Amino acid sequence: MSILPDRLVMLGSLTKAQCERILLSGMIGRLGCYSSGKVYVVPVTYVFEDGNIYAHSKEGLKIKMMRKNPKVCFQVDQVDSMSNWRSVILWGRFEEMDTARDEEKAIRILVNRLQPFRTSESVKPSESAPNDMPTKEKKPVLYRIRVAEISGRFEK
User: Fold this and answer.
1) 25-61 b/e with 16+ CB inside 10 Å = b?
2) Is 100 part of a structural domain of the chain?
3) Does any domain span residue 103?
4) 76 Cβ neighbours under 8 A, 6+ residues apart
5) How far apart are CA 15 and CA 86, in angstroms?
6) 130 pLDDT above the threshold of 70
7) 3 state DSSP class of 47
8) Is the residue at 148 inside a domain?
9) Count of alpha carbons within 13 Å of 33, Cβ hemisphere only?
10) Domain total for the chain?
11) pLDDT in tens, 17-70
12) pTM of the predicted structure, to 2 decimals
């Protein structure tokens, strides 16, 4: 009795170009950061452009951690089935958009890619509340991850 499946399963590595295509087609990834002896992994909405990951967030634990330690890891999956998937992981450096010009660029990149898919306010980097009602919320933190290393695996 064989423990191998009847069909051939192929495992392998993705090329850089294949990794980039997966990053370009995705919108949700998992961001991993480390600070003060704690690892934190959280899903984020993102856009991959010009070799960088662009994202936004409210002030919170991940932003505090990345400010302390800007070295991060980012992972994206495409899963068709348990035996047909692709996974990309990258390592890079968190950079907060801290000039008006950089913030405008990041907002333009995020809005251009994500606006057609917007289903809630959490995916929209905005300073205003619905119907332009005043809000006490702080503006989002816009940031990018400068990719230093990338790798990918697949099963088919």
Assistant:
1) ebeebebbbbbeeeeeeeebbbbbbeebbbbbbeeee
2) yes
3) yes
4) 22, 23, 26, 28, 29, 30, 87, 88
5) 11
6) no
7) strand
8) yes
9) 20
10) 1
11) 999 999 999 999 999 999 999 999 999 999 999 999 999 999 999 999 999 999
12) 0.80
Q: How far apart are CA 93 and CA 72, in angstroms?
A: 6
Distance between CA atoms of residues 12 and 5, nearest Å: 18
Residue 2 in 3-state DSSP? coil
Euclidean distance between the first and the last CA atom of the chain, given in angstroms as a whole number: 23
CATH of the domain at 93: 2.30.110.10
Q: What is the CA radius of gyration of the chain?
A: 18
CA distance 83 to 95: 36
Instruction: Residue 144: name the closest of 96, 76, 72 by CA.
Output: 96
User: Would you place residue 114 in the very low, low, confident or very high pLDDT band (cuts 50, 70, 90)?
Assistant: confident
> Nearest to residue 45, comparing CAs of 142, 153, 123?
123
Residue 43 lies in domain: 11-52+60-121+138-155
Domain membership of residue 1 (yes or no) is: no
Helix residue ranges per DSSP H, the chain: 16-25, 61-68, 100-114
pLDDT at 133 over 50: no
